[in-house]
Structures are given as C-alpha cells and as structure tokens.
Amino acid sequence: MSATKAYHHGDLRRALLASAVDAIAESGPAALSLRDLARRAGVSHAAPAHHFGDKAGLLTALAAQGFDLLAEELRQSGTDLLEAGVGYVRFAVRHRAHFEVMFAPGLYRRDLPEVTAARDRATAALREAIARNPDASASDPQATRLATWSIVHGFATLWLSGALPAEVGTDPETAARNVIPLLFR
Amino acid sequence: MSATKAYHHGDLRRALLASAVDAIAESGPAALSLRDLARRAGVSHAAPAHHFGDKAGLLTALAAQGFDLLAEELRQSGTDLLEAGVGYVRFAVRHRAHFEVMFAPGLYRRDLPEVTAARDRATAALREAIARNPDASASDPQATRLATWSIVHGFATLWLSGALPAEVGTDPETAARNVIPLLFR
DNA sequence: CCAGGCAACTTGTCACTGCCAAGATTGGCA
DNA sequence: TGCCAATCTTGGCAGTGACAAGTTGCCTGG
C-alpha cells in the first residue's frame, strides 16, 4: 500500500484489471497490450503473465467481473421491467470496456467455470426482472425473454458502435426509454 | 489468371479481401494478420499495404463491402417486415466476418465517405422495409425504426456471441421468426 | 531463530507483427 | 520505342505475446 513499490506490488492483479478497463475504454480491446499495462503498473513486462497466464486469461477475468457487475446492475434497477432494460443499457455505456469484452467471443475463454458462473448469475437476474413483469409473462416465456434481451442488447450495441443517427440524441438512457416500451405496448 | 503467378498478382485487392473474410470467420478480427493474408495470396509481406495503406484501411474496405451486402440482403427479403428482420439475422450469420467488423468501431475508419455511403444505403433499405409495413408506421416512426433495428441487431449479436442458451436451438432464422413478431403483435 | 519452500516478480530471448523506406518489375500509353 | 506510373519486393525497425530461467521476499514449521 505504500507509495514506494517494493519487490512485491501487493495488488497487481487488481491494478492490472483496472488499467485494462481504462485502456480498452480508450482504444478498444484490440489495441490492448499486456506490456503497456505492466508499464502503467510499474512492473516488468512479464509480470501480468504470472497472474493471468496470457492475454486471453486477463480478458477472461475481465469478462467474469463484467457479468457480475451486470447482475448487480439489473438487481438494483428495481422491479420494473423497463427500468431493468434501461439498467442494461446504462451498464453497457458506463462499463463499456467490460461490455465489449463480454460479448466478443474469441477474445477470452468463455467456457471456463469462472465465466459461466458469472454469466449464469447475470442471466438469472435478467430472468427474474422479466418474470416480475405481468405483461411479459405471456404465452411463450422463452420467446419473451429472448425478445427483451435482444432489444436492450441491440440498442446498447448499436449505441456503442456509433451506428445510430444523430437524431437519437446524446443520452442513451432517455433514448432507451422511448424504444423499449414498444415491446410491451 | 494463370496458375503461375507473375510479378503482378492481377487481382490482389479482391483476393486479400476474400482471404480476410475467411481468416476473420475462423479466428475473429483481432487475430487478423496482414502478413498472413500476404502469405495466403503468395505475395510479399508488404504487398497489402500498397492496396489498403494499413490494417485499418483493409477493414474499412471490408466494412463498406459489408454494408452493401446487407443492403442487398434487405432488399431481396421481400416486402414483409418480418422477412426483412430475418434477412438481417441471416446476413449476420452468413457474413459473420463482415458483420463483426461493421459494428466494431475502432477497428476501421467509419467516417470515410466509402463507408458512410454504403452505410446510408443499408439504413435506407431497412427504413424502406419498415415503411412498407402498416403496423410499424405507428405514432413515432423513429422509435419504431430504432426498436426494430435494435431487436434484430441484438438477436443477431447475441447469437454470434454464443451467449444464448442452448434451448434456443441451432437454426438462427427459425429462432428469429419466433422472437421478432413480439415487437408487432 | 532460522531453514526452506513458495508465490511474486525480473531478465533475457524468440518469433511474429505492423509499418516505413527504397528498390525492382511490369504493363500500358504517348 | 521509350518512358512512366502502378504494382510488388527487399530490408529493416520498434513493439508485442509467450516462454524459460533466475531473483526476491514473505511465511510457516520446527
């Protein structure tokens, strides 16, 4: 915890993950460099490999962390399904780095128990939010779940990709509030 | 066209783009290597740079090509809005490499006229498909357009990311046909 | 108190990549 | 025919991920 770093960093793993989030938010996951993260943390170029094995290992840890953050966001969004959807979009925008990695297969090992467990927690949270909504518990619950997930995920992804026209505005949550209700009118 | 390659390849630009599509479909955009593409085409390691400038230049050309393919797919899907949505999903699955690059900002220069023009053609095709649908020309056409784009884009993205549960099945178009109508019931 | 074991980190190296500069080759056009 | 511009090659540099082997320091058991 002291300012002068001894031989042992003390919290390298956490520091590397935090730096990775910043770096990805700035330049995207493709531009991420383990050596750059090591420099930011003031350690040698091979130190990250000790904690994460390789680059995919680091992104795997990041994805797992992201699914847990998403689950928390969905749970804090209250009982309203619209608010859960807005929460999903808010998570994607606020935790852009996590979100981009989470849904980029090939960047990390998404079959590791560390990841699958966190992803299951997030999908369970989404499922609960949908189950609480009377409108949504329609004839085909699975299709309803898929449609809800699709519309919020699609909106979030399109927003982040910059593909949406300028008329949509500058506030993603407001825009999402206008779009999501069309599913449940 | 001859089997023995002369000094001039003859169709290098097209060959590189085709190889890039294969390579990305196999290993994702992050693992793409210009030198590997050059090897596949049987040319020197610096040949790609002549046609595309740099890696982002190649991906820019690929994205533009993708938006044109998408516009064509949407136009061929007929007048039904559901079919246009299914066409969107079909495009994403069949042209996975193009799709992944198109909506990955930071990988290419999406403000170049080459790209913006193609993207405008694709959005125009989607807009026409929606305008043809009587249900969809509701009170707020912009929100309707956004919701439609979001649900098909979200479903396609989730499908490609492998995040969907196994119960959804193995055929993306069939699954999409069950999900998309929930928007317009 | 201290021996030794283990986790955290370093140093050194290799193959590979993107990018740049300079040169070689060729097809087409005046 | 001669020249020129587009196309492609050769060579080289800095940066990267991964691996191997060594170093440091903490911590525990006796």
Shape of chain A: elongated
H-E order of chain A: HHHHHHHHH
Which percent bin holds the helix content of chain A?
A: 55-70%
CATH topology of the largest domain in chain A: Tetracycline Repressor, domain 2
Protein chain pair with the most extensive contact, residues per chain: A-B, 43 and 43 residues
Number of helices of chain A: 9
Tell me the fraction of residues in β-strands of chain A, as a range.
Answer: under 5%
Report on this model:
2 copies of one chain form a homodimer. The first copy, chain A, has 185 residues and is an all-alpha fold. The first copy, chain A, has 2 domains: 43 residues, Orthogonal Bundle (Arc Repressor Mutant, subunit A), CATH 1.10.10; 120 residues, Orthogonal Bundle (Tetracycline Repressor, domain 2). Helices cover 65% and strands 0% of the residues of chain A. Chain A contains 9 helices and no strands. In chain A, helix 1 crosses helix 2, helix 4 packs across helix 6 and helix 5 runs antiparallel to helix 9. The first copy, chain A, starts with 11 loop residues before the first helix and ends in a 6-residue tail after the last helix. At the A-B interface, helix 8 and helix 9 of A face helix 8 and helix 9 of B. Chain A binds a DNA duplex (30 and 30 nucleotides) through helix 2 and helix 3.
